[in-house]
């Protein structure tokens, strides 16, 4: 049985529990707000935050009012508390369950605002409470790239630890690592990599982090970045890879570093780099490129191999280098001997380059090589020491034909001195390799589709007047034509508008001109000048009417007929002077004072006879608009 004292103690305890249970913080807060005549609403909370009234804000939160009320700019009470520097109010909002994920109309979240404001403790509290590590800054940038760009390492670390995406990009499309590099924040790079930033990601210009770092001249980061995943072979925005840039700038140390971490030539495109290094006489760069697999047989725009260039330039050091990396020197052994480069020949022989006898004409002859090189001195020496002037060269043709198409007049003269027939036609079947050496399309077509193409025709096509003169002096006949198409040498020169060549074929000096005629279509006048530019004769003319316009350009008088009947119009054309083997020229006719012909140049009767008497075959005629 309980004593009276025990009963008293029990009753007292029960009364205390009853009083405590009857206490309600929300109800008490509501009573207090009623006493103050303050409405328990989200609007009141927003006003309290705006005024920095911490006690009132706390009272309203105890009353469990709505904490998501927005101001006119769309900011929540939590945004305002952080922005205006009221951490106690912000803390109360977090404790009472304010929405930590909400963003204002500009995309600014409580976390991103705390980072921009430099509120480390607030950012930590928000992240610990489950706020997402994302959002925009008031300037519209993503918060993590902003923190990186502004060197906020503590925030970067906290955001990444809080779950920020290490693969995200800034508003311009640049990954985090690129943001740090472009901002010059080397101190953040290792931290970002350790926190999971993607070194393999490319920026908005599709450049690797390696390219971005090298642009900052952070060459010591090349190996770490590649090890972390950056592709050493991705080009920069101009299409140049890091290795290519290093070689072009003669930065051999960087080039070796890049090569060591996997940078490689792409699809043989480093051939140009090899030639560029050689042209600058950078032997270390050449050695590096060759060690990377660039072929020592890579040809330049002229078709030369590096070994040939080294021999041409008398660079035995490069010759030795290219031979060490597998260049084939057998074809150059004779060449080195021929050029009196004894030491070069010894180096080539030491690398197994001494050739066996060349089985000409299947490969080539020394004479053919000299012609192809344009080495007239060696060609003369070879011929003087017994080289056969008629032995076919690699293209399967006579040395004379090769010398003509390659415009080697001195060698042509030497071959003709040794009895080569200047009128011997080319064989019916001509090799493609020879045809490729021919300059003009007309002769190329004739070699494939016609016969009886002679040396003087090749010369007419080559444009080398000295070659044509040497052939004519040796007895070449210009009055020959091809069998099927009846093409004359002068026709070939005319098709190329080669007045000098036409003059040679007509027996005139190609350079010294006694006369020239200028035809002015606009003035309908023709003027004859002497070699000094003195006017000798002038006449009115009538040229082609509409639909039959007289051609402009430079021509030569290739035929003169005192009487002639047009084969096109069956009309009499006295004093006809044909221009460049074409179907028009000067002739006597009606000159009404305006263009009236079918394309020819009409001259009045008396003047036509005088002009005919004053001109000669080969005279230049310039027809101007």
TrEMBL record:
Coiled-coil region(s): none
Which pathway does UniProt place it in?
Cell wall biogenesis; peptidoglycan biosynthesis
Q: Which UniProt keywords apply?
A: ANK repeat, Cell shape, Cell wall biogenesis/degradation, Peptidoglycan synthesis, Repeat, Transferase
Q: Does the keyword Cell wall biogenesis/degradation apply?
A: yes
The record's Pfam families line, in alphabetical order, gives: Ank_2, YkuD
Q: Superkingdom, according to UniProt? A: Bacteria
Q: According to its UniProt record, which residues of this chain constitute the active site? A: 587, 600
Q: Do the record's keywords include Cell wall biogenesis/degradation?
A: yes
L,D-TPase catalytic domain segment(s) = 515-624
Question: What's this protein's family per the entry?
Answer: Belongs to the YkuD family.
Q: What is this protein called?
A: Ankyrin repeat domain-containing protein
Lineage, top ranks? Bacteria, Pseudomonadati, Verrucomicrobiota, Verrucomicrobiia, Verrucomicrobiales
């Amino acid at each position: 049985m309980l004593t009276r004292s025990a009963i008293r103690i029990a009753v007292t305890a029960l009364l205390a529990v009853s009083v405590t249970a009857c206490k309600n913080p929300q109800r008490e807060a509501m009573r207090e707000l009623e006493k103050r005549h303050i409405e328990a609403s989200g609007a009141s909370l927003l006003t309290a935050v705006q005024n920095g009234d911490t006690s009132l804000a706390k009272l309203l939160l105890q009353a469990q009012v709505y904490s998501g009320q927005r101001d006119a700019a769309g900011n929540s009470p939590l945004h305002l508390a952080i922005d205006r520097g009221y951490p106690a109010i912000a803390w109360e909002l977090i404790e009472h369950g304010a929405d930590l994920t909400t963003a204002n109309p500009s995309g600014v979240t409580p976390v991103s605002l705390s980072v921009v404001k430099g509120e480390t403790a607030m950012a930590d509290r928000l992240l610990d409470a489950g706020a997402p590590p994302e959002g925009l800054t008031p300037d519209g940038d993503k918060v993590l790239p902003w923190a990186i760009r502004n060197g906020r390492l503590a925030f970067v670390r906290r955001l990444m630890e809080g779950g920020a995406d290490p693969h995200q990009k800034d508003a311009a499309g640049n990954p985090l690592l690129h943001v740090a590099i472009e901002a010059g924040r080397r101190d953040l790079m290792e931290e970002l990599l350790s926190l999971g930033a993607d070194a393999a990601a490319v920026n908005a210009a599709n450049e690797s982090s390696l390219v971005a770092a090298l642009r900052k001249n952070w060459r010591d980061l090349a190996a770490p970045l590649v090890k972390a995943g950056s592709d050493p072979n991705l080009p920069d925005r101009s299409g140049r890879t890091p290795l290519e840039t290093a070689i072009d700038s003669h930065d051999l140390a960087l080039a070796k570093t890049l090569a060591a971490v996997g940078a490689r030539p792409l699809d043989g495109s480093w051939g140009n780099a090899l030639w560029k290094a050689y042209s600058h006489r950078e032997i270390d760069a050449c050695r590096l490129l060759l060690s990377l697999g660039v072929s020592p047989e890579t040809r330049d725009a002229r078709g030369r191999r590096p070994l040939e260039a080294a021999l041409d330039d008398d660079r035995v050091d490069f010759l030795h280098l290219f031979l060490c990396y597998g260049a084939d020197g057998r074809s150059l052994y004779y060449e080195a001997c021929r050029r009196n480069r004894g030491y070069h020949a010894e180096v080539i022989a030491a690398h197994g380059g001494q050739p066996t006898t060349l089985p000409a004409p299947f490969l080539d002859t020394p004479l053919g090589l000299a012609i192809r090189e344009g080495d007239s001195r060696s060609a003369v020496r070879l011929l003087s020491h017994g080289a056969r002037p008629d032995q076919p060269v690699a293209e399967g043709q006579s040395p004379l034909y090769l010398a003509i198409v390659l415009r080697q007049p001195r060698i042509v003269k030497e071959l003709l001195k040794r009895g080569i027939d200047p009128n011997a036609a080319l064989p019916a079947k001509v090799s493609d390799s020879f045809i490729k050496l021919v300059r003009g399309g007309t002769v190329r077509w004739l070699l494939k589709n016609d016969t009886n193409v002679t040396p003087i025709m090749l010369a007419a096509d080559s444009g080398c007047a000295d070659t044509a003169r040497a052939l004519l002096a040796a007895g070449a006949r210009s009055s020959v034509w091809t069998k099927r198409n009846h093409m004359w040498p002068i026709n070939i020169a005319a098709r190329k508008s080669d007045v000098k060549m036409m003059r040679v074929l007509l027996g005139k000096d190609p350079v010294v001109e006694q006369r020239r005629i200028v035809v002015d279509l606009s003035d309908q006048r023709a003027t004859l000048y002497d070699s000094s530019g003195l006017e000798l004769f002038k006449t009115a003319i009538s040229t082609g009417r509409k639909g039959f316009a007289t051609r402009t350009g430079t021509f030569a008088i290739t035929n003169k007929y005192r009487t002639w009947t047009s084969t096109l119009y069956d009309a009499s054309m006295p004093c006809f002077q044909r221009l460049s083997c074409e179907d028009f020229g000067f002739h006597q006719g009606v000159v009404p004072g305006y263009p009236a012909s079918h394309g020819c140049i009409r001259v009045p009767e008396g003047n036509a006879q005088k002009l005919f008497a004053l001109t000669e075959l080969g005279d230049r005629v310039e027809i101007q608009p």
